[in-house]
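Quick review question:
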């Protein structure tokens, strides 16, 4: 996802310019703010109106256009950009930048930016293989500019060879990697439970706990950023669903159990972060319970243990649980890991400041099946989430090697 990121697309004059319309469209679907700069020649292949309609932003073609807002446009975009992608990158723009020429909106913006600049060359094979072009590419690569290799195939000019623009999906995937970091979970599906459950007593009261959902939602956000397909099954919380994550809202442990059991088969990693009520009321009063005697006894009966049931049927899936403890942290967590057939358990001592319920940070121990413990210092729940995902990935990679 590219929410909150500004991608500047520099379109040059080549027949592949039409393919860049799809690049812009895909970036928009990832929530990027896309700003298109076109060279004069690019506007002969595709109209600025096309890019304006797809990007929902003004398209800049001329250095001396009236700016939409009073800012020096090439400086403003150069500063705002998280990345600049030049596609199709012609021999002309590569040559200009390699030789320090800044004579139009695109070349001046490239010259004025500190953001990464990615060139996606697309041109006739002979032009691409020309030693001058290759020398310019080498020079720019050494200076830190990034080049995507053109694809080989039949060219618009009728010849065959290297010089075709890579598929839009390839360009967008590279942009996401460069802007957001690693996408090492892109082939994996992650199911996460989060938040508390609410067990009704009567129409106005319920039993719950202090879980805010922050830990589970942080893991979901990180897994999604790293490319995983993520589904959250969440008790009642007050947090926005992370971009790109599917969220199913539940209230009771029973509802959470049913949703998890319906879904788990399609997932590779199952992370049980929810603070699930162990008991529920044997009878839910139909009407509000009135104040009568000195005592009120409510009979509680056991809820299903979601993690334990998953442990019985998980197969090769990676099952990760959490253990919220107030005493004897490691022993209690290890007992749960064994009883529920988990691959990892994340132990947090919820009496420690900065750990457990409601905080933005956590202090966790990652306990493995063989008893090894990774003891981590206080860190944001997002960082802790990444450490847990790293460990899950290590197990998956090891299992893959062992099975081959
Ligand atoms: O939501 P936050 O405010 O960010 O707080 C995070 C947290 C403290 C809730 C989280 O870090 C945490 O520790 N979650 C697990 C809390 C818990 O209920 O632990 P437990 O020891 O009771 O349960 C052990 C494991 O079994 C957990 O993975 C739990 O999800 C699972 N379980 C428990 C009972 C049950 N009926 N079904 C379950 O699946």
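Suggested answer, residue by residue:
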């Amino acid at each position: 996802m590219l929410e909150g990121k500004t991608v500047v697309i520099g379109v040059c004059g080549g027949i592949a310019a039409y393919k860049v319309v799809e690049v812009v469209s895909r970036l928009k679907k990832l929530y990027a703010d896309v700003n298109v700069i076109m060279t004069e020649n690019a506007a002969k292949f595709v109209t600025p109106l096309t890019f304006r309609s797809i990007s929902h932003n003004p398209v800049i073609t001329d250095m001396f256009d009236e700016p939409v807002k009073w800012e020096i446009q090439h400086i403003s975009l150069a500063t705002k950009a998280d990345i600049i992608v030049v596609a199709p990158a012609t021999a002309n723009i590569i040559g200009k930048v390699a030789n320090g020429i800044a004579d139009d909106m695109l070349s001046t913006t490239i010259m004025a930016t500190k953001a990464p600049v990615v060139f996606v060359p697309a041109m006739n094979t002979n032009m691409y293989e020309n030693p001058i072009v290759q020398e310019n590419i080498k020079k720019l690569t050494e200076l830190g500019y990034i080049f995507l290799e053109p694809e080989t195939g039949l060219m618009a000019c009728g010849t065959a060879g290297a010089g075709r623009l890579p598929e839009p999906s390839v360009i967008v995937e590279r942009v996401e990697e460069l802007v957001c970091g690693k996408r090492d979970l892109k082939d994996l599906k992650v199911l996460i439970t989060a938040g508390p459950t609410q067990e009704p007593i009567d129409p106005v009261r319920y039993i719950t706990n202090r879980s805010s959902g922050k830990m589970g939602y942080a893991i979901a956000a990180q897994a999604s950023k790293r490319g995983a397909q993520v589904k959250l099954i969440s008790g009642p919380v007050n947090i926005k669903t992370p971009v790109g994550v599917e969220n199913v809202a539940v209230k009771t442990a029973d509802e959470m159990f049913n949703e998890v059991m319906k879904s788990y088969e399609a997932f590779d990693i199952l992370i049980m972060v929810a603070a699930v009520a162990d008991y529920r009321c044997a009878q839910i009063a139909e009407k509000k319970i009135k104040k009568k005697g000195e005592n009120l006894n409510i009979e509680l009966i056991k809820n299903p243990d979601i993690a334990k049931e998953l442990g019985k049927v998980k197969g090769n899936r990676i099952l990760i649980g959490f253990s919220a403890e107030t005493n004897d942290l490691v022993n209690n967590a290890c007992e749960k890991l064994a009883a529920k057939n988990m691959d990892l358990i994340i132990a947090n001592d919820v009496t420690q400041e900065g750990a457990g319920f409601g905080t933005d940070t956590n202090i966790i121990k990652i306990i493995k099946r063989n008893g090894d413990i990774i003891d981590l210092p206080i860190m944001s729940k997002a960082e802790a989430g990444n450490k847990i995902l790293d460990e899950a990935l290590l197990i998956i990679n090891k299992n893959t090697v062992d099975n081959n």
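Why it works: The domain at 189-403 is CATH 3.40.50.10300 (Rossmann fold). The chain is about 35% helix and 25% strand.
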